[in-house]
Structures are given as C-alpha cells and as structure tokens.
Amino acid sequence: MILVTRHAMLTGALAAGLSLSLAACVSTNPSPIVEANAPTPSAPPISAGSTPQYSADVSPEYAAMYGPVTDEPYPIAGVDLTQVNHDFLRKEVDYKTDQPPGTIIVDPDHHYLYHVLPGGRAMRYGVGVGREGFGWSGVATIHNKQEWPDWYPPPEMFARQPDIKPYMSQLQSGLGMPGGADNPLGARAMYLWEDNKDTLFRIHGTNEPWTIGTSVSSGCIRMINQDVIDLYSQTPAGTKVIVLGPGVTASLGGSKRSG
What we know:
Layout: H1 2-16, H2 60-65, E1 91-94, E2 104-107, E3 112-117, E4 121-126, E5 129-130, E6 138-147, H3 155-160, E7 169-171, E8 174-176, E9 188-194, E10 197-206, E11 215-217, E12 221-224, H4 225-233, E13 240-243
Parallel strand pairs: 2-13, 5-11, 10-12
Antiparallel strand pairs: 1-4, 2-3, 3-4, 6-9, 6-13, 7-8, 9-10
C-alpha cells in the first residue's frame, strides 16, 4: 500500500510540471539536456482492468499484435487502438533505397521509422519524435542496447522539481528510476552514437502510446512498446541509423520515402 501511494504521489508531482517522457533521452549517464516545457498530450481515461476497445476497422491481426505482453519481466498492457492513429501501426511497405537490409531510416517529419528489408521492402513503424528545437539528424550507429533500461533525469529537472528526488534511487550511473513498467523509456532502448560519441538520443519504448505520431519528446525516437520489442529483436549493435533532417524526404545514400 505504501508503494502504491508513493507511486501516485510521484505521478502527480510530475504531471504538475513536466511529463516523465519529455526528459527520457538522458538514460545511461546523467548529462545536461534541454527539455521541453509543454505538457505531454493526455490519453482519454480508461478504467483499471478494462479491456481495450478496438475500433471496427482494426483487424484481428492488429488486435493480437498490440495485445498484452505477458512474457516480459514487467507486464505490458494491450494498446487501446482507439487512441492511436492507425496510420502509425506497424506495416510492411514498399520502400526503395540503396541502403542495405537491416538499416534503420527515421523520417521525423512524417513520424515513421523504416527497418529496411530485402527486395525493396521495409517494415514501417509509427514513432513519436522531438519537438522543434529538440531534434537531431544525421548518421549514427546503435552502440548498445538495453532491455527495461534505467532512466536518469538531468540535473535541470531535479532543480525545477525537487519533490521528485525522494522517489528516485541511487543506481549504477547516478540518481534515477530503475527500469520497469512505469519507466518513461519503456521496454527497450537502443543508444545512438555518432563518430564514437554518444548523441544522447535513443530509440526507445514508451508507456504513452497515444503520443505516437506526434512531436513531444526531447528529441528521442519513441515507439509503442510492442513495436520497439519487435524492432529490438531484429537489430544488432552496430546497425546503421539514418535520421532525416527537417524537410528532407530522401535519406542519405538515396533512400526515398514510400508507402
């Protein structure tokens, strides 16, 4: 009962100022990062224990794809697909590119991530990306990967919201929140490095699936937990990641948005 109360108090304290997810990108070593000031969009209320209501045009395949995940260390709730724009659900599409299969290409303007497949195809995922001024573009590699990663709020967040500090724990890399169901990095994180330097941007899960298809984070690339688990399982360390710049519709090397 004490843990439930503490969780509720922490959630309320964060909601009063800055959503957890908006500072999620500093996650391995506590480092300063500029944060957003606007609140994260809220989902419609759902009663505890209720079954997600899928709209009539969602196939049984999608209902199963985004259903509850029960074989993880922490439970992952089924996604209420009435809260997610169906254009951003996982889909295999035509995608012409000279990048080799396995490459990840992120199109922030259109809120898509493409995992290049053989034969001119790609698996397309909807993503949430950084708000104006918080984005990053370029070519990076996935330096390392973590399941249920810890989250380290930057010093600026502690300065603005000292009331959250008692609810953090002393972890390996500093004061933060252990990985788990309520952690803003979700079930998986893939850490992007450029020229052997950490960009401080990640591809990670989210416990706010209704923000997919929007620009609300501090620059990280967020995915529905079910989607990030799928991508993570097919993406080894060393994978090339191309993040397109604003207004760019062709990736480096000639990749073009399709589908």
